[in-house]
Amino acid sequence: MAGKVLRGVSIVVGVVAGLVVALAAFIYVASNARLHRVYAVEIPALPLPTDAASFARGEHVARAIAGCVDCHGGLLEGHVVMALLEGQGISGAEAARVRAMIKCAEEARKPKGGTQ
Hints:
The chain is mainly α.
């Protein structure tokens, strides 16, 4: 009789373990599909003005309002803003910083939720 009970218990344990494994596999496959889903997102082209008035307004914003010339210089060529040590400083035209800011902005424009 003890053998039959042990056999019945082991069958139940085996079925439960099989169900747990099947559920884990289903959750893995379903979540993996969701994580790798790619959404087609169209980024509309921005209408860029090319008239003289818009250029004058942009120059006014860069020079008087935003203070771009403080870091980037009068011709936006870049210059040292803050000297840290002799011959070293923070420049408004550092290419690595500009690339990092652009990459950060591009990442911010991407929709969230596992898209690539």
